[in-house]
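Chapter review: from sequence to fold.
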Amino acid sequence: MRSIRRSAVAAAAVAAVLALTATACGPEDDGADADPSASATQGSEDIALPDNLDDRLKDLGIDLDKWKDGAWKNWDKDNWLREAGEFINPIIEDLWKPDRMREAQEPDQPVEEEDISGDQGVTDPDPQPVDAKQVSAPYSAQVPEAGKVFFDGPEGSMVCSATVVKDPAHPGKSNLVWTAGHCVHAGAGGGWYKNLAFVPAYNDAGKSAAQLKNATREELAPKGVWWADWAQTSSQWIDTGASVGGKGAPYDFAVLHVKPEGTGGKSLEETVGGALPVDFNAPAVKSIDEITATGYPAAPPFDGQKMHQCADKPGRLSLDAAKPTMYRIGCRMTAGSSGGGWVAKGSDGKPALVSNTSIGPSSATWLAGPHLGPEAKGVYNAVSEKFANK
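The token string follows.
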């Protein structure tokens, strides 16, 4: 998530997939319907290129030879924010090796304290901090829909959290993943991140960092690595999202369509054993008894290797009186948990995804997530419909 200092908020920005501080993504040490604008393909070093990728890259002004030689990972510091009409994300087999996954982090980006606007009956007092509890292993038996999103940005390898959600076009066989907008696109003036992939049930056995030092890829990714062949976020996030001030946070959500890195006939939902419905008509804040947020916090005192949860009765947070009021809960999860799903009883009384982690203070005492309204539904439906006949 993006970091805010007490009453301040920070949203991720620019052209690729950025990370929020306090609970979102981070760099690796090594190395309205919404006017949805988002897409993604993938790549390979040796290189098993998708059909027509050569032409698509040329249309975007990308030199294919340079891309093969390493442009897929080397950012031009002056031009990395260049917008592209399509998110090109070709599968690069074995790119996400164990060390890259373990070391991907969320950079701390504290912002100066600032007042939250609209604090007139729509922003409740700061909630009491709630300690994050580690989920019992195996995670796949407790929260089969949860996992991590990995991607590359100018600062290196980065990470967010994410959730498998149902696809109305493919009942029981969804390949859709829900995360934060700042985990796929940098926001105003920016573009898409590279090498975006989802790893469900990351470190399913709940091993410590020390135990994972020599872990195999199968230990970290027991359900496989799933590359995004399409990513979509809100036009509001793309137009207004920023790394400071909470701009765009009420629309900080995204949907991915993914496919397995290797061959396989099963869908993501079938592979993990579940997918959550998304409730775009969730009850008002005061009608929700409890929201449970899930994620992989990476900033101290956490290390990003274990899944945690916070459960709390939500309150309201308004960043702008003209924008939707966000949900807010007490939670001590830190950076790395951005994009993680928020689950509550939906309008039908059954568990449903009602939000995702977007922002939180550098003090790590609470988290806030967007209310999923018509803009979110527009993004979701657009992705589902795009792949309805595939």
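Two observations follow directly from the output. The longest strand covers residues 156-165. The longest helix spans residues 374-386.
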